[in-house]
Specification:
The complex is a heterotrimer. Chain B is an all-alpha fold. Chain B is built from twelve helices and two strands, in the order H-E-E-H-H-H-H-H-H-H-H-H-H-H. The chains are: A alpha/beta, B mainly alpha, C mainly alpha.
Chain lengths: 442, 312, 279
């Protein structure tokens, strides 16, 4: 075991801690004794092929070869070439964060590589800095902004493996019926379109405002409008500066969009799947969605509007278009005994050929710019050019160590303002105060 | 284990009682040992944690902060709302579950209700995996494509689609209905077992005295079920305060915290925010509420039981 | 005449009550069953598209062929739940009897202490518990889950059974003692046989709780000891929720519990032998 693990970030030694803990009863005592146990564990020497344990999403959410069905031969070859065996624990997305939290808290995470979605800053202390280990070739082929969500304190601790940022999806049939020939380009267009498309028991817009927190939650959605309006979340010192005209405009735009014809259930939908169901049933004409949904939305088994979907960049606010980052990334734990090998495996996941099969076989867009430009890829994922164009504009999700707490606070205030319990200005002011308090307590 | 051998056993003698007591202690020990082995450390840790500043990234290295976490909670409006929601939830759930379960138990105990299919029907909601149950209700309540709104509007009961989970008051009560539906079977089963234990001779005596169905229920069934009902209330109160799945799947505590209850708050603070100290403080307050409740219930029911015994 | 009318009225009332009971209890289940045979597109339509052509076994086939190991989950659940229920009944019934009848010193305090262990939300005990289990090598094992579940169901079993044992007429025990039965024999041969409904109720409780428990199973298992509800939950992802498959999996996972209920159904409604009470 790494010696650093025996010293707290605050510089306390284990001994002083045990002293402190002594008064706190059996629980604290036994917990204080944990590190020595862990140290004992680490002394056993591994023999034979090296084993890498990977915690990952389950398909159809984004997953590596060996879990999802693609590049399986290449994956087998990688294992034999590197004298390594890779064992997966693949679990649903909703369970990953809590499982990570428990394992990291216990000090004994069993994995070498873990999937992360915006939690890198939160678990930064538990992750290896792999930025220096990944090849320059790979780094230069990834969009620089893709590193924003996996970097904390200047350390790159993960690699995003799929280009996942929100774009506009719209129902081409509804557009034709309403005489609309092209997608909305600006906020004003979007409001006007929403009003015009809200008829015959359908709604112009649908979104999921039910869960305030996390990637894809209410607050995260608002961040796309915030950037479209020219605002940002934090200043150089990490303090909130979103309580300005842009922040309020963004919230007000969500309210205006609500009044113009947002599907009323939107306030209760807690996930993108709920929202997509309304869109693919043909009961709402437009939504913002992740690129992956392109495939199921065009599958006749799950969608009533297969083949009738258009994609476009998100409508522009005062500062142009902007989006938010879905940030599906791989990281290496600090507990890993083979961090170099683990990093090599991540590089394999991002190899051009694997990236290409990823999109062709599973629908998840590659993150490599060269693969995105590939003709086969563009032919198979017809929305890829749109996503690529969207990626040229800002798409920050502003992740921080207290991301869930921050987004919980902002998202809850936004729910209040959408429900007309508060004005946009009040909601943003209150949210800003809460976020400032959260950061102060960090 | 003690074996009495049977020689010179005098049922009312002192040695009889002493032997029973000794056997009794031996019989209780395994249960206490299991509980102590598994839960003593986690419970002690949760109590200790509430006095510390500790987060998931460095859980083992918490710093003692005294009552700071509790002070933070008392000043937090979300905590106050969660406490209110929890109490409302518990009161309604316990009352409705016990009353409806009692009614169902009486129906199933009636000669017409003794068909074995009814007993299997009773267990079905309970057998459904809780996560699937929560997702099932999420779909039932969906305002756009949910079956509830469709049936409601098709039959004219609802004037139009209702956003069940979008309105604070509606959302909490919608969750309650799903929870109550899931919780009724076990309580019914317990009360049914309680009804089985009422000596038939009492009913016969009642009939001879010319008691009607209501009087039989009021003066024979209900007093005989007293202990069972007390147990149902105590257990259901604890479970109501600990309910989690539905909030987690259907509303995530929203809209605007309308369905946030203490148990969900403890989860959110501990796991989502990573603030284990504060989360433990929420949990320990929840524990305290339950503890007081259990004491109160037992006290309320005790004098009557003693009186009953005295009369017997 | 009026008496017969009243009796008929009462019969109708009870019949209506029973109908209401069945409808209330089964309506959501029936909808779950229907949705498990429909594709997503038919379910999100308004009204739901129940055309016969839409009904399909795809969800079930998908569940059984998916990489998610539902069969393995069912096996783990069965093992964990049976052992939990058996141990809970064995340990719990004797403790309950002792606390109800054998005048164990401080029994009311012990009862309260036992209940107190159930008053701590899972969220705060899970991390220390995880540490304890990983120290002893019991994470991701059936034994680990079984011990944890035992500690959750034991208190309930004890509380419930204690209430019922208290209602057993003392005369029965005295009579047994006079006949020369030991305390254990009295318990085993006299008290237990007349307590079948509560024993059944608590046994079923222990079984179902262990069968269906989710939160601890998610955190404490990795791949070897995954139980059925964990596998069922795996059909709900971030971007896509395979609702039909999830319900289908839940239906499959409920079947063993329902079979159990069918096998043991008579114990739900069998209690005191009348003669015993008269004696």
């Amino acid at each position: 075991m790494d010696d650093r693990r025996l010293v707290t970030p605050r510089g306390l030694t284990r001994r002083s801690l045990l002293k402190r803990g002594a008064g706190l009863g059996a629980g604290a005592l036994a917990l204080g004794a944990m590190p020595s146990f862990l140290a004992a564990c680490g002394s056993s020497t591994p023999s034979g092929p090296k084993e890498l344990k990977v915690l990952t999403n389950q398909p159809p959410d984004p997953a590596p070869p060996g879990v999802a069905e693609y590049s399986e031969e290449a994956f087998a070859k990688w294992q034999s070439d590197n004298a390594a065996t890779v064992s997966y624990e693949s679990i649903p997305y909703t369970q990953i964060h809590d499982k990570l939290a428990t394992a990291f808290a216990s000090g004994n995470p069993p994995w070498d590589i873990v999937y992360m979605s915006g939690w890198v800053p939160e678990f930064s202390k538990n992750l290896a800095t792999i930025g220096d280990m990944i090849s320059a070739e790979l780094k230069s082929d990834l969009p620089p902004s893709s590193f924003k969500t996996v970097t904390w304190d200047g350390k790159i601790q993960g690699v995003v493996f799929t280009l996942s940022l929100m774009t506009l999806f719209y129902n081409t049939e509804h557009f034709e019926q309403a005489g609309l020939s092209e997608p909305p380009r600006t906020w004003d267009d979007l409001l006007r379109y929403t009003k015009e498309l809200t008829r015959d028991g359908r709604y112009g817009w649908v979104n999921n405002y039910g869960a305030p927190e996390g990637i894809g939650g209410t607050a995260n959605l608002w961040m796309s409008y915030l950037q479209q309006a020219g605002g940002t979340m934090y200043d150089e010192g990490g303090l909130p500066i979103f309580n300005d005209a842009a922040g309020v405009d963004a919230a007000q735009f969500m309210v205006d969009l609500w009044d113009a014809g947002t599907e009323p259930g939107s306030i209760s939908y807690v996930g993108i799947a709920d929202t997509t169901n309304v869109f693919t049933a043909g009961k709402a004409s437009m939504m913002m969605n992740w690129p992956f949904m392109w495939k199921p939305a065009n599958d006749p088994a799950s969608s009533a509007i297969a083949g009738k979907i258009g994609a476009a960049v998100l409508p522009a606010g005062a500062a142009g278009t902007a989006s938010i980052d879905g940030t599906d990334a791989f990281t290496v734990t600090l507990a890993s005994k083979n961090p170099e090998l683990a990093t090599k495996l991540i590089e394999f996941y991002l190899a051009p050929e694997v990236q290409k099969r990823q999109v062709l076989d599973t629908g998840w867009l590659p993150i490599r710019l060269s693969t995105l430009e590939d003709a086969d890829v563009q032919a198979a994922a017809t929305n890829a050019p749109i996503v690529l164009e969207q990626a040229k504009a800002p798409y920050d999700s502003f992740v921080t160590p207290d991301y869930i707490e921050v987004t919980q606070a902002i998202g809850t205030e936004l729910q209040r303002c959408i429900r007309k319990e508060k004005t946009a200005q009040q909601a943003i002011t209150d949210a800003s105060d809460q976020v400032a308090a959260i950061i102060k307590a960090r | 284990m003690t074996f009495d051998g049977g020689a010179a056993a005098r049922p009312t003698g002192r040695s009889y009682l002493a032997r029973r007591r000794r056997t009794g202690t031996l019989l209780v020990l395994p249960a206490l040992a299991v509980l102590a082995l598994i839960l003593a450390l986690p419970i002690a840790a949760s109590l200790a944690l509430s006095l510390m500043k500790a987060d998931t990234a460095d859980f083992r290295f918490g710093v003692f902060v005294g009552l700071e976490n509790y002070a933070t909670l008392l000043a937090d409006p979300v905590f106050a709302l969660a406490l209110r929601n929890s109490i409302y939830w518990m009161v309604v759930e316990v009352a409705v579950v016990v009353v409806v379960a009692l009614w169902f138990a009486l129906l199933l105990n009636h000669p017409m209700g003794r068909w074995s299919v009814f007993r299997i029907v009773l267990l079905v909601p309970w057998a459904l995996a809780p996560v699937a149950n929560a997702v099932l209700w999420k779909w039932i309540y969906n305002s756009n494509y949910g079956i509830l709104n469709f049936l409601g509007t098709a039959t004219g009961v609802l004037p139009g689609p209702v956003v069940w989970l979008g309105d604070p008051a509606l959302a909490l009560n919608a969750l309650l209905v799903a929870e109550i539906w899931k919780e009724i079977p076990f309580i019914t089963l317990l009360l049914l077992a309680g009804l089985q234990n009422v000596p038939r001779i009492l009913y016969r005596a009642g009939r001879l005295d010319g008691a009607g169905p209501w009087q039989t229920f009021r003066f024979i069934t209900l007093p005989q079920l007293r202990t069972t009902i007390l147990i149902c209330i105590v257990l259901q109160s604890i479970w109501a305060l600990k309910s989690f799945d539905l909030v987690y799947v259907l509303t995530r505590g929203g809209p605007a915290n309308a369905t946030t209850m203490l148990n969900f708050l403890a989860y959110r603070v501990s796991f989502q925010f990573g603030n284990l100290g504060l989360g433990a403080a929420v949990a320990d307050i929840l524990f305290f509420v339950m503890f007081l409740l259990a004491l109160a219930y037992v006290r309320v029911f005790r004098p009557a039981r003693a009186a009953e015994r005295g009369a017997a | 005449m009026s008496r017969r009318w009243r009796a008929r009225l009462r019969r109708t009332g009870i019949l209506m009550g029973l109908v209401l009971f069945v409808v209330w209890t089964l309506a959501p289940i029936v909808w779950a069953l229907i949705s498990s045979f429909l594709p997503l597109r038919a379910l999100t339509a308004t009204p739901p598209d129940l055309a016969p052509g839409n009904f399909t076994l795809d969800n079930y086939l998908g569940v059984l062929s998916a990489d998610r190991d539902l069969i393995g989950g069912l096996r783990n659940s069965a093992i964990v739940a049976s052992f939990t229920a058996a141990l809970a009944l064995l340990i719990g019934s004797s403790a309950a009897y002792a606390l109800a009848r054998l005048r164990v010193p401080g029994s009311s305090k012990i009862l309260m202490l036992i209940l107190v262990t159930q008053m701590f939300p899972a969220m705060v005990i899970i991390i220390p518990l995880f540490i304890v289990l990983s120290r002893t090598g019991l994470t991701d094992s059936q034994v680990g889950l079984m011990i944890v579940y035992l500690s959750f169901v034991l208190p309930i079993v004890i509380w419930v059974l204690k209430g019922f044992f208290e209602a057993v007429p003392r005369e029965l025990e005295r009579a047994a003692a006079v006949d020369g039965a030991s305390t254990m024999q009295t318990f085993r041969l006299v008290v237990l046989p007349i307590s079948l409904p509560p024993l059944f109720a608590t046994g079923v409780f222990a079984f179902i709780e262990a069968w269906n428990e989710f939160f601890f199973a998610v955190i404490l298992t990795q791949s070897n000891a995954k139980t059925a509800p964990v596998v069922v939950a795996e059909f709900s992802g971030q971007y896509v929720s395979l609702y039909g498959q999830m319900v289908a999996a839940a239906v499959i996972a409920s079947i063993p519990v329902i079979v159990l209920a069918i096998v043991f159904r008579r114990y739900i409604l069998e209690g005191f032998v009348e003669g015993a009470v008269k004696g």
